[in-house]
Write a structure and sequence with these properties.
By secondary structure, the protein is α/β, with parallel strands linked by helices. It has helices at residues 39-48, 59-71, 85-94, 111-118, 136-142, 165-174, 195-198, 201-206, 234-240, 250-261, 263-287, 307-316, 345-361; strands at 2-4, 7-9, 26-27, 78-81, 101-105, 122-126, 147-153, 180-184, 210-215, 228-231, 290-291, 298-302, 319-320, 337-341. The protein folds into 2 domains: 2-38 and 263-361, Aspartate Aminotransferase, domain 1, CATH 3.90.1150.10; 46-261, Aspartate Aminotransferase, domain 2 (3-Layer(aba) Sandwich). 38% of the residues lie in helices and 16% in strands. The protein binds pyridoxal-5'-phosphate (PLP).
């Protein structure tokens, strides 16, 4: 219970997100966390609401300290922003140059890429491997004397495929040291594998050309609060910081701190994702649907139906899903592929039923 201006507000503390969206569509399109965020984070936010009239209550600084401890780096290696998206865009702006290029893969996450392109820079796309994973040889071949950034999203979005950790680390070490390697680990907590063996953050501690970004939007379920951060050397942070647009709000910083401390809820969320993802894969297998090996908050699957048609038909039935990206892709190559976010079991059953009906209609 919080008292604001004499008005008593009561909040229900539950793990499930409140149905606050104005439309009643089932949103399996934006990789939002349907399992909800930490009830302890919610309680802490409610408790702190009265502090909203202050600019700075030290909550962001406290969050930075906590994240430095979590990552095992000095606090000057952490930069927090309102979601991790701003870090991708700041980096693109900081390195923008019409003569230079960013190397990435076809069908990757586009926030950094799009911004670099908008700033007049060039993009060089490497093709994916046959199983839709990273082809590091193709990426190495794409690097030239004008490359300033190599962008890797692991697991990749929209394919969901995880890079082999040894191959990835070998590749990073092979990239010339004057090129920034940007590893976006937005979904890494959700893999079935050992997070500690996979994360590149320890390399960002020791190498001056590696930056790793994380978000509280996915596994932690705090998308609406907007918190993300980078782990990188002060040299990299100083390069991108001129384009900084401000920290997360104090409420977001409190939510993130409590979420980090609430390991039980994190485990609950990760297990819910893993279990539901495996459930949908089993159903896809039974339905004869091909999919890329998913290790994030979504599954990239092939139906044979044009992805836009499928999305439109799904929307008519009240379900939003996402499609393929066109970045660096031969037109039409992934036209029959779409991406569905992992939601609750009930949501996924509805999605699967609807998909079966649409596939019968063909
Ligand atoms: C791979 C990846 N990176 C970064 C982001 C940015 O998310 P946020 O700004 O909420 O941290 C997203 C959002 O969907 C994403 O999929």
């Amino acid at each position: 219970m919080s008292v604001l201006g004499g008005i008593a507000l009561s909040f229900s503390l539950s793990a499930e997100p409140a149905p606050t969206l104005k439309d009643s569509l089932i949103r399996l399109s934006s990789n939002e966390n349907a399992f909800g965020y930490s009830p302890k984070a919610q309680a802490a936010i409610v408790e702190a609401l009265d502090g909203g009239s202050y600019y700075n209550r030290n909550d962001v600084a406290d969050l930075v300290e906590l994240l430095a401890e979590k990552e095992g780096v000095p606090s000057d290696h952490i930069l927090t922003t309102a979601g991790s998206g701003p870090l991708l865009m700041m980096t693109a702006i900081a390195y923008a140059d019409p003569e230079k290029n960013v190397v990435t893969t076809e069908m990757g996450y586009t926030q950094l890429i799009r911004k670099y392109d908008e700033m007049g820079g060039q993009i060089k796309y490497a093709s994916l491997s046959e199983d839709m994973g990273y082809d590091f040889e193709a990426m190495s071949d794409a690097i030239d004397e004008n490359t300033v950034i190599v962008y890797i999203c692991n697991p990749n979005n929209p394919t969901g495929v995880l890079a082999d950790p040894i191959e990835l680390k070998k590749f990073i070490l092979s990239v010339p040291k004057d090129i920034l390697v940007f590893v976006d680990e937005a979904y890494l907590e959700l893999t079935d594998k050992n997070f500690g063996m996979l994360t590149i953050a320890p390399m960002a501690k020791s190498l001056d050309n590696v930056i790793v970004t994380r978000t509280f939007s996915k596994a932690y379920g705090l998308a609406g609060f907007r918190v993300g951060y980078a782990v990188a050397s002060p040299k990299i942070i100083d390069t991108i910081k001129p384009y900084y647009m401000g920290p997360p709000s104090f409420i977001a910083a409190i939510a993130a701190q409590e979420a980090v401390k609430d390991m039980d809820h994190m485990i609950y969320n990760v297990e819910a994702y893993q279990k539901t993802r495996a459930y949908v894969c089993d159903k896809f297998d039974a339905m004869g649907i091909t999919y890329a090996k998913p290790q994030g908050a979504f599954i990239y699957f092939k139906t044979g139906i044009d992805q836009q048609e499928l999305r439109d038909s799904m929307k008519e039935k009240g379900i939003l899903i996402s499609g393929s990206r066109e970045s660096g892709v031969i037109p039409g190559k992934y036209q029959a592929w779409a991406r569905v976010s992992i939601g609750t079991q009930t949501q996924m059953d509805l999605f699967l039923d609807t998909l079966s009906q649409l596939m019968v209609k063909g």
